[in-house]
Each structure stands twice: as structure tokens, then as C-alpha cells.
Specification:
It is a single chain. The protein is α/β, with parallel strands linked by helices. The protein contains twelve helices and eight strands. The chain has one domain: TIM Barrel. About 45% of the residues lie in helices and about 15% in strands. Helix 7 packs across helix 9. The radius of gyration is 17 Å and the shape is globular. The structure holds 1,3-dihydroxyacetonephosphate (13P). 1,3-dihydroxyacetonephosphate (13P) binds next to strand 8.
Length: about 250
């Protein structure tokens, strides 16, 4: 997979089944009838929507992904969903290591590495989420934290890395209305590429899509997307309104 322009919507824990169907239909119609500037659109709804939205998006270029994946093949893990369950309904993407999962569900770089590995084994593209907290940025630890988070990729081959997407989401910018400036975001994206270049090689680092996430809206998307190392966005709140989500996707 080479670098793509990607607008990805993370619905988090929002939308009933019926609301989700309505939102997805609006997104599909707008993406089909408006000029999209070559953006790939991905949506990450809660589990209950996955099977119907995969079907609803058949025949379109819109991809549907899970927000989480379990790191074991199967077994006594009440409440969890496995990679083969996801592929059995046609899911081809999953988020891994979103900061909310790290914060509330104790996900670590090690558990993320296991999730990335099982996703790739099953042909699912992981969108690996990384990013520092406000305290970490204020103490100038942000580059180091992101480097540690990237260590979850260290066991991958170059071919496997090429099937991953990275999302840089500074925790202080998520749901706060405070966006990283385009320069701040690009600085970190360039740093991520340089770390990956050391771990793999320059071509691998240049080839991977790196999305920015954190209060992306229609009015700031253009300046973020104009930066050389920002390939797209992982959008929370604004992905719950079809007009805003599509307007962001049209900002490339
Ligand atoms: P917001 O766009 O609501 O800040 O959320 C970003 C995010 O966490 C996407 O995964």
C-alpha cells in the first residue's frame, strides 16, 4: 500500500443502529455525487453496525473498520471480538491503541503490538493510534513517547508495515476543540517517518500513510492536509455529521 489521502471517521460510542444506517447512507450519497479529490473514505462505527454497514457500502469505495480487535484467535474472552469474526463479515480495517482505549482499558504498546500482529495475519489493515498527553508535551517528552509507541511495530517485516496506517492523535487535542497547528502536527509526522526510517528503511517510512487526529473540522482540514507529511485525518466529533465529514474529505 502506498501513501493515500484518507478521511477516516471514528464514531466512538455514538449512533444507534438506525441512526448509523442513516448517517452511512448520507455519507455514501454525498461521496458518490460530489467531487471528492481522490480521498479514500473509511468509517469506524461501533461493532453492532459493522455487518450492516459493510453491506450498505458494497459497490462503493468506502471502507468499514472496527474500533478494536482482540489479540487472541478465539477463546473464553467474554465481551470480545476476534479477527476472524471481523473478516467473516467483510471488515478489512481496525483501529488499534486509540488513546481512549489506552486510558480506560489499559491498552499498552505491548498489547497493541499483539493486536497489530493478529490483524495483519488475518488481512486486516491496522490503523495504529499514537500520541502524547498534555503533560508529556509540556515536559518535552512528546517525541520520546511517540518513539516508544512506535516500538509496537518493531516486530513487523517491511511488507507488513506497508499494510499499516498510523494515526497521530495528541491526546490534548482530542475532543477539546484545540487542534495541533499544522506545523506542530507536521513536525511530529516527520519525526514518525524518521523513526520508522531507522527501524525499517527510508522507502518504508516514506510509503506509509500517517493521519492526524484531534479536533479536525472543515475549517482546519485544508491547512493540515497542505502539509507534506500529513496524509489525512482520523476524525471524531465531526465524523458524526455527514456534511462536515464529507467537507473534510473534500479538503485535500
Ligand atoms: P475529535 O475529532 O472529536 O477530537 O476526536 C479525534 C479522535 O479521537 C479520533 O479518533
Amino acid at each position: 500500500m502506498s501513501r493515500k489521502k484518507i478521511a477516516a471517521g471514528n464514531w466512538k460510542m455514538h449512533k444507534t443502529f438506525q441512526e448509523g444506517q442513516g448517517l452511512a447512507q448520507e455519507i455514501r450519497t454525498m461521496a458518490n455525487t460530489e467531487v471528492m479529490n481522490g480521498a479514500t473514505i473509511l468509517i469506524f462505527p461501533p461493532y453492532i453496525h459493522l455487518q450492516s454497514l459493510v453491506r450498505q457500502m458494497e459497490g462503493s469505495d468506502i471502507g468499514v473498520g472496527a474500533q478494536n480487535i482482540h489479540d487472541k484467535e478465539q477463546g473464553a474472552y467474554t465481551g470480545e471480538v476476534s479477527a476472524s469474526m471481523l473478516t467473516s463479515i467483510g471488515v478489512r480495517y481496525t483501529l488499534v491503541g486509540h488513546s481512549e482505549r489506552r486510558q480506560y482499558y489499559n491498552e499498552t504498546n505491548e498489547s497493541c503490538a499483539a493486536k497489530i500482529s493478529i490483524a495483519l495475519k488475518h488481512g486486516i489493515i491496522p490503523v495504529y493510534c499514537i500520541g502524547e498527553t498534555l503533560a508529556e508535551r509540556e515536559s518535552q517528552a512528546h517525541f520520546k513517547i511517540v518513539e516508544q509507541q512506535l516500538s509496537a511495530l518493531s516486530g513487523l517485516s517491511r511488507e507488513q508495515l506497508a499494510n499499516c496506517i498510523i494515526a497521530y492523535e495528541p491526546v490534548w487535542a482530542i475532543g477539546t476543540g484545540v487542534t495541533a497547528s499544522a506545523e506542530q502536527a507536521n513536525e511530529m509526522h516527520a519525526h514518525i517517518r524518521s523513526v520508522l526510517s531507522g527501524m525499517f528503511d527510508e522507502a518504508s517510512a516514506e510509503g506509509i500513510s500517517i493521519l492526524y487526529g484531534g479536533s479536525v473540522k472543515p475549517d482546519n482540514a485544508k491547512s493540515l492536509f497542505s502539509m507534506p507529511d500529513i496524509d489525512g485525518a482520523l476524525i471524531g466529533g465531526a465524523s458524526l455529521a455527514s456534511r462536515d465529514f464529507i467537507d473534510i474529505a473534500k479538503s485535500f
